[in-house]
Amino acid sequence: MHKTTFRQIMGFMSVIICHLTVKTFANVSCPSRPLPAQVIRRSRSHDLFFVDVKRGRDEWNGKIPYPRRNSGPFRTLSGAITGIRTHRKSLKKRVTLFVKQGIYFVTETITLDERDKGLSIVGYPGDRRPLISGAYRIPGSRFTPFGQKIFAAPIEGKCSKHVFLGDKRLVRARKPNLKRWTGNDMTGEGPYLRISDLLRPTSKCNIEGIGGFKQDYCHPDNQHGFVFKEGDIDLRWRHPETGDILVFHAWTAERGHILNITARKNQVHFVRPLKHPIGMHPNPSGWRYIVENIFEELDATGEYFCDETNKRLYLIPPEGPLNSKSVFIASEDILFLVKNTVDIQFVDLAFRHSHDRNLERYHAKPSLLQFEDANRVVVERCVFSNIGHTAITLDGTCVNHRIFANKFHDIGYYAVHTGYKTKSLLIRKNTFTSCGVSHMFQPSCVHVRGAANVKVVENKISFTPYAGIKVGWQPTFRSSYLRPNRFVFIIEKNDVSNYGMGILSDFGGIYLSSNPRCSGPRVDLSECHLHARVSLNTVHRASAYHYGGMGIYGDTAVSSLRVEKNWLYDLDGAAINFHCGQNNLALNNMIYHTNDHRIFGTCNRIVGGGVLLRQSLSFKKNVIYVANSAARMWRSSDEWVFAVPQVNNNIYFFRMFHQHQVDEFFPKHRSLQEWRNSTSNDLRSVISDPLFQDVAHRDFRLRSKSVGSRIGIKSVDLRNIRHNSGIC
């Protein structure tokens, strides 16, 4: 009798799975689960195991989904991995571990290695996505009133910069307060306090900011603190040593942990020096800072303070007592470490609540899913949210990875970051929102580095304090690395919007760069080629704090870029910037330029250490619709030597048509005719209305009567990219 029942369970497992998926499909949130489900049976080549946090036991064999006498699913993920290794008879068989719904708290990193080859960890079809958390939970019932608005509860683990009330991120008690807490806030949002003076001002680096953009030399003492305005840092704080100060530079912001406060001089000093001295970039920094994690500043909804010494958490919830709501304190930084193995899959899972080891500066790791020398990995239809640092990293030799149809939200630093040895990577159809929430060393949602066949396509990316997609920052290649029209990186059909958010400066929605060897007076530009194609993307709604909210930005002499058929509009800087470099082409882009900055950027002497580098670049068959009377084609500091950029077959249109603007719009304050006569550029270009379909609704297709067809410009329809990219 019992044996017959067991056979029935095993024999009809796939039927049960399909039935459950069909029945509950409509109730599953984005990303949707597949319909119908793939039918998987136990076979000689494939085995099944189950884990159920509510009804399982790790001492069972995990081979059936429901408890039955002395058998049933595993209870914990770590127990399941150990059990599978014990019961698995051959590494030649693929294994699927079905994870039933519930919350799985990971208290120690789960390592997958060569013993786990061919393992798929999959959310059980028909259930809600199982949640895998790196936090410890405090039930709302444990919080008791502490004063008028504050509630407090004891904690069992360590404090964290990443604490969540349900799915909303709480903010460390800060000064000044956010204008309004939403639970989806950026740490770097204003308002801000302002530095009063430097610890060691000099004639070349001082609070007056003589350099404007950059001051040449700032004393190293200015890495250790600053002078504050009377009252901004309160001398009555009982424990200032618990606090951090978030200091803004130009394209980064970093934390200094408070060592002490010198009351007589209004000076604050840090435990460790900052990476950059304060004062290097006076205007872009705005001399801004924010104070975090001081108990006396716990005075606004959504703020919290964690007392490490007395093991108590204090917070101000939005609606009085927490009651049934839980608070999650992130404690584990790496939930899964996958190394030296192949054929690993994570499918239909939810991941939340990772820690960041309190790291600052340029550290992509730790990450919640960390792959090291792992090949043929799939991450599909998963949800990543409330992440302390990075969600996914690929490091070492990683080949044939697919990151597909996932949703990323509320990410501390990067959602996805890859190493420069990466090959054959596809990041496709994902939705990314709110990256760089707490870590601001040039953050982005996606940062890809690689050696061959790296594709980032059909993703939706929005709300970052800096870039949307970063490409490069790695050892680059020679121009002969690939045959013509072959690319290491393909960045295509992505929608990138609402980036910068008025927090940092000097970035692009799609930002490409090389490495420090490609700057300086002795640089060999033949080794600075990235070989990237950036095409059919919509890049829009940029906002920089001070300058440089660009569309597509090739920095640090990065070379062999092909920027083609993109829609670039509503930006806060240049539409396209080739900051030096060779063999760079901007072709057939639709540009709607609303800001008062340049449209195209070229080289200046910063990259060459005071020496202007040899460069080669072309701007051809682009439509430039100028909607700001102060805008110019290039700024006065954009230069070139050895070869004039090739510019031709473009359409220029000035919506407000001021003769003064037209007469000096072209490089070196020239009119079109003067520009043609002096350089032989733009001989086939025209000044004419391009006849966009609907500028008001940002539809930049060309009408059939547009002059573009006569000079070789093709209409580009990216409406579907803007509205239907990503998974959600």
Describe the structure.
- By secondary structure, the protein is mostly beta strands.
- About 10% of the residues lie in helices and about 35% in strands.
- Strands 1-2-5-24-27-30-33-37-40-43-46-49-52-54 form a 14-stranded parallel sheet, covered by helices on one side. It has a 14-stranded parallel sheet with strand order 3-6-25-28-31-34-38-41-44-47-50-53-55-56. It has an eleven-stranded parallel sheet with strand order 4-23-26-29-32-36-39-42-45-48-51.
- Residues about 1-30 have low confidence and may be disordered.
- Pfam families: Beta_helix.
Q: β content, as a range? A: 35-45%
The outline comes out as: globular
Average pLDDT metric: 91
Strand-pairing-aware structural class: mainly beta
Rg calc: 28 Å
The spatial strand order of the largest sheet comes to 1-2-5-24-27-30-33-37-40-43-46-49-52-54
The poorly predicted ranges are 1-28
List keywords for this structure.
single chain, 728 residues, mainly beta, 58 strands, 8% helix, 35% strand, globular, disordered N terminus
